[in-house]
Amino acid sequence: MNKPGKGVLKAEPAPIELDFAKTALVIIDMQRDFLEPGGFGETLGNDVSQLSRAVKPVAAVLTAAREAGLLVVHTREGHLPDLSDAPPAKVERGAPSLRIGDSGPMGRILIRGEAGHDIIAALYPREGEIVIDKPGKGAFYATGLGDELKRHGIENLLVCGVTTEVCVHTTVREANDRGYRCIVLGDGCASYFPEFHETGLKMIKAQGGIFGWVSDSASLLETMRAAQE
Asked: How far is it, in rounded angstroms, from Cα 147 to Cα 144?
């Protein structure tokens, strides 16, 4: 597949023109700790199967982005083994069955280098794709993401991943403040709470797109195909 040029993507609150040469796909935290039983998401009492609905749409977009030569960025939330980058207020919050750093079925919960911290097999990064390890919910905080995007001349972000109202939303808000145009792929995002997912998408596109645009994987794939012709 040839690299697409420019195209107009169907989105809300309005269509948006994209120059795909200046566009990156950002996949947020599709990690085993969040999507699989025994990980951090389940320790919080969540039904992790709620997140599986995003996997197929993200996989389709990831395949197309790779074939088209778009910049691909994966993020992973997690902490250093000594927890020096994990604030006590985060570690001590709530009443999970296991806390960050505790030993679980996939290794220490939400710790870099452990099996649970890694990205699920269906979306595993290829060699050369950017992987951003972040200690917080936003992908720009305490990471080199901003520098990587500047180095590649990126202006537009296609954002998907989990969870919609937490790490996706935080990243989009951070990106918006930095001048990036964010398009969130609604079916490529998911939450443990479907009502939070729907509300999160509404918040992004409200007031004329206060944080960005909301589209879907099928519309994006159609636009990319048309932009290659």
From this structure: 5
d(C-alpha 24, C-alpha 118), whole Å: 21
Please count the helices (runs of H) and the strands (runs of E) in the chain: 8, 10
Residues pairing with 8 in the sheet: 17
> Which residues are known to be catalytic?
29, 134, 167
* CB distance 15 to 83 below 8 Å: no
Q: How many CA atoms lie within 13 A of 43 on its CB side?
A: 25
Tens of pLDDT along 2-22? Answer: 678 999 999 999 999 999 999
Q: Read off the pLDDT of residues 115-141 as tens digits, 9 standing for 90 and up.
A: 999 999 999 999 999 999 999 999 999
Sign of the dihedral through C-alpha 121, 147, 153, 160: positive
